[in-house]
Design goal:
This protein is an alpha/beta fold and 227 residues long. It has two domains: 117 residues, Response regulator (Rossmann fold, 3-Layer(aba) Sandwich); 103 residues, Arc Repressor Mutant, subunit A. The strands form three sheets. A five-stranded parallel β-sheet has the order 2-1-3-4-5, sandwiched between helices. It has a four-stranded antiparallel β-sheet with strand order 6-7-8-9, with no helix packed on it. The protein has a three-stranded antiparallel β-sheet with strand order 10-12-11. Helix 3 links the parallel strand 3 and strand 4. Helix 2 packs parallel to helix 3. The protein is globular and about 50 Å long. The two termini are 35 Å apart. 30% of the residues are buried.
């Protein structure tokens, strides 16, 4: 059974989410402010965090940054803030998905399930896999990347993008598929996200990021990983 932490200062919304999540066999914890959220993640180790940005004691983006200092737990932002700049700030801070209020309960639950699938360790459902290249090694089961004898620190979004690509070696992965698998089902046209995060992966993993050997762009179509 997977555990979800709901962080919101609206008791009615927390109650509605808890009822719907428990009806679908999730365990649910709740926190009503940022400090409580940080303590709950450390104590309860949820599989997914559903986080409001407008908390009484601190901004939700600061909560995201605090969590990203030590955990890769998937974070789904649930907020009334609809400005593009605020969405980008939350995603850049380390959020995995962004849902605006008011929202459809079925859609939110689908995003929670997708986040759980993406965060499930590879070895839990299939044999552990290690992908080796000339310059770096990806341990899919441990969710770690090594280069030159040291761990490479990736953000959760960078890891999700890398994982999708290395699980499809030599195959073109379309832009829409990548966006939906990494950012969620509501995405499909934000190709600028892919350009930004692919550039970050290349800087961290390619020997020559300007002339990538492993992360190949197929213009107008998608990306391909070559081991």
């Amino acid at each position: 059974m997977h555990r979800v932490l709901v962080v919101d200062d609206e008791p009615q919304l927390v109650r509605a989410l808890a009822i719907n999540l428990r009806a679908r066999s999730f365990e649910v914890d709740a926190a009503h402010d940022g400090a409580g959220a940080l303590r709950a993640v450390a104590a309860r180790q949820p599989d997914v965090v559903v986080l409001d940005l407008g908390l009484p004691d601190m901004d939700g983006v600061d909560v995201i940054r605090g969590l990203r200092g030590w955990t890769r737990v998937p974070i789904i932002v649930l907020s009334a803030r609809q400005a593009s700049g605020e969405k980008v700030e939350a995603l850049d801070a380390g959020a995995d998905d962004y849902v605006t209020k008011p929202f459809g309960m079925d859609e939110l639950l689908a995003r929670v399930r997708a986040a759980v699938r993406r965060s499930t360790p590879a070895g839990a459902e299939e044999g552990a896999a290690i992908v080796e290249t000339e310059t770096f090694t990806v341990d899919l089961a441990a969710k770690k990347v090594h280069r030159a004898g040291a761990d490479v620190r990736l953000t959760p979004t960078e890891w999700h993008l890398l994982e999708v690509l290395v699980r499809n070696p030599g195959r073109l992965v379309g832009q829409k598929q990548l966006l939906q698998e990494v950012w969620g089902p509501a995405y499909g046209t934000e190709s600028n996200y892919l350009r930004v995060y692919m550039a970050q992966l290349r800087r961290k993993l390619e020997a020559d990021p300007a002339r990538p050997r492993h992360f190949i762009t197929e213009p107008g179509m998608g990306y391909r990983f070559e081991p």
